[in-house]
Amino acid sequence: MTMLDxxxxxxxxxxxxxxxxxxxxxxxSLYDWMICGVAGVREPVAERLRAVIGAEGxxxxxxxxxxxxxxxxxxxxxxxxxxxxxxxxxxxFSHVGHPSVGIYPAALAAGEEVDAxxxxxxxxxxxxxxxxxxxxxxLGAVHYNRGFHQTATAGAFGATIAAGRLYGLDRxxxxxxxxxxxxxxxxxxxxxGTMGKxxxxxxxxxxxxxxxxxxxxxxxxxxxxxxxxxxFVPTHSDAPVTENVWDxxxxxxxxxxxxxYKLHACCHGTHAVIEALAALKASPGLDxxxxxxxxxxxxxxxxxxxxxxxxxxxxxxxxxxxxxxxMILSGIPTATDTAYTDALAAxxxxxxxxxxxxxxxxxAVGDMEAVGEVVLADGRILPFxxxxxxxxxxxxxxxxxxxxxxxxxxxxxxxxWSAVVGLDGLSARVLGAKMGAG
Amino acid sequence: MTMLDxxxxxxxxxxxxxxxxxxxxxxxSLYDWMICGVAGVREPVAERLRAVIGAEGxxxxxxxxxxxxxxxxxxxxxxxxxxxxxxxxxxxFSHVGHPSVGIYPAALAAGEEVDAxxxxxxxxxxxxxxxxxxxxxxLGAVHYNRGFHQTATAGAFGATIAAGRLYGLDRxxxxxxxxxxxxxxxxxxxxxGTMGKxxxxxxxxxxxxxxxxxxxxxxxxxxxxxxxxxxFVPTHSDAPVTENVWDxxxxxxxxxxxxxYKLHACCHGTHAVIEALAALKASPGLDxxxxxxxxxxxxxxxxxxxxxxxxxxxxxxxxxxxxxxxMILSGIPTATDTAYTDALAAxxxxxxxxxxxxxxxxxAVGDMEAVGEVVLADGRILPFxxxxxxxxxxxxxxxxxxxxxxxxxxxxxxxxWSAVVGLDGLSARVLGAKMGAG
Lengths: 438, 438
Prior knowledge:
The structure is a homodimer.
Chain A: H1 3-11, H2 20-39, H3 44-56, E1 62-63, E2 69-70, H4 72-84, H5 99-113, H6 118-146, H7 153-166, H8 171-184, H9 196-216, H10 232-236, H11 271-281, E3 291-298, H12 314-317, H13 321-330, H14 342-345, H15 348-354, E4 357-361, E5 369-376, E6 381-387, H16 394-409, H17 412-421, H18 428-437
Parallel strand pairs in A: 3-4
Antiparallel strand pairs in A: 1-2, 3-5, 5-6
């Protein structure tokens, strides 16, 4: 079977065949996407996109985060960029991309257009995201290293599949939509640090809606736009690794289950340390005043990224192991963007604790791991360790995501959580309206 | 100077510095684009795009070929695909791409949006097209051979520059627009033979309008999206050749001057033969009944493309040296798509003449050349030769393009020609309305 065959099977999977655990993760991602989207609404990139795309007008079929309704393609473009503006959304490490911000905006907008059930939007997202992760794996690390942004490139295929499923495309139609996406998908990592990065998520989402809509109308395209001669994979990867992409887990089970959420509004390279120290902090009898040393071993790749010893601004705190360790051990929340103030960088008590943090690179420690020990004044040595790859129990994940939501949006977040809990009783349009209203 | 510096200079060139000869070619291209666009309006890809994109609606600021007005981005998408539907539009062989179909739709739509003068639309097209050809040359043959479609990729940059100039972007704004285009541009050759090919032209045009509009609204992007680290050129070409791209001709003079027009509705590989035999046919006293043999030498690369010995359909006639030679020598026009009927393929008189055509590959004959001789019954041998690279005198080119227009559209074409002749007195909106109405 070609990758395209696998994907066409996946795109047509009956809802009844979707494992409950995978569906639960898709709904956690929905909540995470919604809170990131609503929280991003005042970011300059979001405001500017609403101004430009909103000025085009058009039939109001899909909700725009921040208010108003536009054609599905336009809403998907704005909502993709808006939800990625804070860079606080989910990540899948099997291909290294952000699934929700490129795919959910396409699924929701297409779902609103055809008046689908909200549950079908979440299922279409899941299937699109699963296809996207597998395509991203097939493109391989060389694709990312060459300069392509998987969120935008692999993401566009996921968005196409999600929108195409909601539009009711048959197998030939879905094949045409994927072929059109092959010639439409784009996105470069050189945009990182600019508004071009969130724009990339919007590009993926709008490409998905456009290609699915054009295929629905009968546009033809390359037979196998993915792996055929001069298809997307051979033109965009020097060393595709498509052969074993469907082996583990096999079709019917979902790689998407291992999606990861940012629970701290700082560099992802610091999250394992934060989790490890937070667990330690929760142990009874630990008095921060008694801490003499915090010895941390981390993957050497992070030393150039997030080991700023003396941050000067709130932004630099997000890339400082020492300061973040101090925040956790002092009980200062790390989940909210607004916590990272310049005043925090100048806090003398934190500076004392941060001065006791010793960071060493250790090639035996993985990218998603942190290992170390805390030395106390009484001579005790408390080891700590965390691996972000470890599954988080559903109840703990729920609590963490809801805490993240409250940190971002206050009590408004609970309304969005209620919508996700009650998803099976909602239409896509009601879901969109809740998100549009924030 | 980087390529980006050159392009920012070019994009800001005062209208008074544009050479008259280059401006004349841009206006020939405008006419050629208009007749191809209006003639393509009933093609299925055009009708389907009008249905899908038209259904989105939106503020009516730019004319759609075939009628109606839509937002500039939407009109550019439809008009790009519509004008490339017949694949009868202009080609620039320095980078091998179709300049008009990707760039004029963006220039016209943006020009209509801001109520620019029609002459400024043509100038903006020229500057965008020139930049596009130079970028295409920088991407190199490896880009095309890898599978990218220059019409869409390099074309998107040309469309961005043309739209950005009409939107009045300053140097920083144009830089941002080009950076956004770097992450937005796409298009693959694997779509050839499907509706994805004309869609690629629409992709270029709509990307140009979108990126220029977003830069106008203040979206930021990579500093040098073209040649910077992981910019468009290094990610999309394994062997960029950007160093000497601006040497010949130097800035201030235009490579665009050598743009080529299809004057026959058949494979471009046959056009040199057709021109050579048409010149021979025009010589007095040549009686087709006296022709014993037509010996043709052509580049070996064309033998697999357009040497069908016994075409079975009108479409196959377009790829048959023998049949096309017979048509020319019998005085049957080759400029109109409708001439290529299945009945023509079955014409016994043509079959006799075609049977006398002998084709040989000759590596000494260039891709754009044809060389040969006609042997007459009285023993005379009449040599013929043509090189498509040879400049065509302006009056002859005008006559040929107007004949092409009449072949495609009848007398309606003369109204479009009048608009081009009177361009300096028109607004973009009046020009757009003439094209929209066909």
